[in-house]
Design a protein that fits this description.
about 475 residues, alpha/beta, Aspartate Aminotransferase, domain 1, Aspartate Aminotransferase, domain 2, 2 domains, seven-stranded mixed sheet, four-stranded mixed sheet, 15 strands, binds 3-[O-phosphonopyridoxyl]--amino-benzoic acid
Length: about 475
């Protein structure tokens, strides 16, 4: 291909983009053949909570990009921070006894905004890498503690912790485990605290205690002296916005404390205000030893992740000395850290976390209670600025649709067609909109959701599925 063709001017249109995409671009979590046949949707512009595609359609982005653009698109403060840092020093590493001012300042600020046990941070480029760091770090900790046989990490079915070998192993997604020889050794799973699927015979509070009890059973089965850590998302995001009963996390904490097991909170989605506190563990009342973060730390403007390390672990890692043989080229990338600093300062200045807690979260919850009355909806759950609607065939009995009908995908199709991005996890429809929405924008989103539920209902009836 000639240089001229490679640098084609701006005249490219949708069909052209789609052809080049199909020819060269392998998308994540995608059936390549099916997408090439269908054609990719090309997203070209973002402003506030809206996106535009290459056909000029305006779309309300109720998923914040991918659970990350929490302050909305086009914020000048973040653009300026990136530009200034790119000019000043686009990159330097933190490996050879060096550091850059933005990385140091971000570490300092993260210690301020996180719960008091966190005074140290290890940076990565993503949430998956952060969870790889978690596996390496908790095993290193127990080695230094003189208990090297404590290696097993307990996680949960239907958890999502990323797509690297360790991240996907920690996760509990069967489709991922079925490819590539996962999970890696030393990672075991218990059932998720999903009341709708597993607990409807009992009260939510009783079910929360029962689900935490599965952790204790697993610890005893493996042997407490072999268990290094338990990891969980405060609210399971990619699994379908599964909000655990309030009894769950405090009981998990009690069990881990009793057996000396480290508690890891994967805050990649819940962190930085999504649940109405800075971190999800604060909303659910537990005190983790380690927290993974990514996404909302930089509002997705640039890739950044990492691990906040609580004093129990940090003290041992720091005081015992010896090299931790682990790190990434982009650990503490100065541009990413500069953007994250601007993002966190923006969250502070505009009191966005408080607004989610006091105003937006409660308002969204009220609107979701209304949506729960829809004939297609078996359960509505929300927490801060995330919510889920479980679609059912029979509202009275909570009977599910045959999964092979893919009713969630039918609903998602109506959402796309009506200018709304809402995700389908099986037949669970989920939103995680930007934290900067106005009340009027929540109303706009909920009206769109309502319309798409109506269209799905009509569609499902017409197909004879209900
Ligand atoms: N932990 C959690 C809780 C996540 O939600 C990761 C780790 C991994 O982060 P990175 O930055 O490596 O992707 C995530 C990511 C979905 C979806 O379909 C969710 C995520 C990623 C991709 C798709 O909801 N979450």
């Amino acid at each position: 291909m000639s240089a001229v063709m490679k640098n084609k001017p701006a005249a490219r249109g949708t069909a052209d983009w789609q052809a080049a995409d199909a020819a060269h671009y392998l998308h994540p979590f995608t059936d390549f053949k099916a997408l090439a046949a269908k054609g990719t949707r090309i997203v070209t512009k973002g402003d506030n909570i809206y996106l535009w595609d290459s056909e000029g359609h305006k779309i309300l982005d109720a998923m914040s990009g991918l659970w990350c653009v929490n302050v909305g698109y086009g914020r000048q403060e973040l653009i300026d921070a990136a530009t200034a840092q790119l000019k000043q020093l686009a990159f330097y590493n933190s490996f050879f006894q060096t550091a850059t001012p933005p990385a140091i300042e971000l570490a300092e600020l993260l210690a301020q905004v996180s719960p008091p046990q966190f005074q140290h941070v290890f940076f990565s480029g993503s949430g998956s890498e952060g969870n790889d760091t978690i596996v390496r770090m908790v095993r290193r900790y127990w080695e230094l503690m003189g208990q090297p046989e404590r290696t097993v990490i307990i996680s949960r079915h239907n958890a999502y912790h990323g797509s690297t070998m360790a991240g996907a192993s920690l996760g509990g997604m069967w489709g991922m485990h079925a490819q590539g020889g996962l999970p890696i050794p030393g990672i075991v799973h218990i059932e998720q605290p999903c009341w709708f699927e597993l607990g409807q015979a009992m009260s939510r509070d009783d079910f929360g205690l029962k689900a935490a009890g599965w952790l204790e059973q697993k610890i005893l089965e493996v042997g407490a002296d072999k268990v290094a850590a338990f990891i969980g998302e405060p609210v399971q995001g990619a699994g379908g916005v599964i909000v655990p009963p309030p009894t769950y996390w405090p009981e998990v904490q009690r069990i881990c404390d009793q057996h000396g097991v480290l508690v890891v909170s994967d805050e990649v989605i819940c962190g930085f205000g999504r649940t109405g506190q800075w971190f999800g563990c604060e909303t659910f009342g537990f005190t983790p030893d380690l927290m993974t973060f990514a996404k909302g730390v930089s509002s997705g403007y640039v890739p950044l992740g990492g691990v906040l390390v609580g004093e129990r672990v940090a003290k041992v890692l720091v005081e015992q000395g010896g090299e931790f043989h682990h790190g990434y080229t982009y650990s503490g990338h100065p541009v990413a850290c500069a953007v994250a600093l601007a993002n966190i300062r923006l969250l502070q200045r505009e009191r966005i976390v408080e607004r989610v807690r006091e105003e937006l979260g409660p308002y969204l919850a009220k609107q979701f209670e209304r949506l729960a009355e829809h004939p297609l909806v078996g359960e509505a759950q929300s927490c801060g600025m995330m919510g889920a609607l479980q679609l059912v065939r029979n509202k009275a009995s909570s009977e599910a649709f045959d999964p092979s009908l893919e009713v969630g995908m039918v609903c998602r199709g109506h959402c796309f067609g009506n200018g709304l991005i809402m995700r389908a996890v099986g037949d669970r429809m989920i939103v995680a909109p930007p934290l900067v929405m106005t009340i009027a924008q929540i109303d706009e989103m909920v009206a769109l959701i309502h319309r798409c539920l109506d269209l799905t209902l009509a569609d499902v009836k017409q197909r004879g599925w209900m």
